Amino acid sequence: MTFLKSWEEFEKAAEKLYLQDPYKVRYTMKYMHSKNQLILKMTDDSVCLQFKTEIAQDLRKIDKFISNLVRHMVSKES
After folding, report:
1. What is the enclosing helix (H) or strand (E) of 37?
2. Cα–Cα distance, 39 to 54 (Å, whole number)
3. Rounded Cα–Cα distance for residues 78 and 72 (Å)
4. For the whole model, what pTM was predicted?
5. Residue 72: pLDDT above 90?
6. Cα-flanking dihedrals φ and ψ of residue 32, to 5°?
7. Could you read off the pLDDT of 7-32 as tens digits, one per residue?
8. Nearest CA to 43 among 71, 17, 5?
9. Calpha distance 34→11 (Å, rounded)
């Protein structure tokens, strides 16, 4: 499993993965206090996307991304 380098790359790939098959995708978020890192992972068991950050300002971007995913989940189109 490799980590994507930029947030924008992870965000686009993760949204694309979710829209392909919303019922198969899982999303996890893990905070490692000892390393001061937040690790995001999105997988559908065949593709695994990961992103890690130590920057506090990325939390706002992550919050917006999660809100966007939830909006997709509750829409009547899926």
Report:
1. strand 37-43
2. 9
3. 7
4. 0.85
5. no
6. -105, 105
7. 999 999 999 999 999 999 999 999 99
8. 17
9. 25
Calculate the alpha carbon distances from 40 to 73, 75, 78 in Å. 18, 23, 23
Averaged confidence pLDDT in the chain:
91
Percent with pLDDT over 70 in the chain: 96
Residue the block writes with tokens 């890690």: 52
**Helix or strand holding residue 43 (H, E):** strand 37-43
Q: CB count, 10 Å around CB of 5?
A: 9
Count CB-CB contacts under 10 A for residue 6. 9
- Identity of the residue numbered 46: S
